[in-house]
């Protein structure tokens, strides 16, 4: 199972954006990619510029930079008029895209988590009490400052939590997903992916779904990292 997990993990590239108009996908030697508006090379450090600031990586960690087409600038969907109103599947999809872009994540990654967590159902409640599309526990939702019973809040909270976990584990999608499923405490206890069959299966299912969505996207032309002024 661990061998399969390693193989699936190598396929993952959850992408940070933090800006609606993504310009470049910067891929690291871990197999993880980030999306930035532009980059500069300062000595031996790549500085990635995003709408939310900058991120820095040693040049020996950057394997390639891929030019991306501009993303559209859709208007964020309005929240349902009442807490009991059920948004359409198209509205759910739009919420997932907007939350991913807002939190600097690739939409396909967030959508993969939502699909495996709840099969995109806001009324789904797990036997442990996790609520809605992104299956937020009430305590987690409270810490994130969102209402797990509201679809748009739920999705935003899930995307925010995923971003925090990816940053915490240096862009390792397997560890981030393990913490999302089993909790950061379990990852810390076992100093890695905990030996829970459910968690291993969960990680593989999410990364398989993510790869499927990635494979369905139009291919972009890659280029060698270069400095910009």
Descriptive report:
By secondary structure, this protein is of the alpha+beta class. It has a single domain, classed as Lysozyme (Orthogonal Bundle). It is 42% helix and 15% strand. It is built from 8 helices and 7 strands; from the N terminus they run αββββββαααααααβ. It has helices at residues 2-9, 89-103, 107-118, 138-144, 151-168, 173-182, 184-190, 197-215; strands at residues 24-28, 33-36, 38-42, 45-50, 53-58, 62-67, 222-223. The strands form 2 sheets. The protein has a 4-stranded antiparallel sheet, with no helix packed on it. The radius of gyration is 18 Å and the shape is globular. The N and C termini lie far apart (46 Å). Residues 6-22 and 221-229 have low confidence and may be disordered.
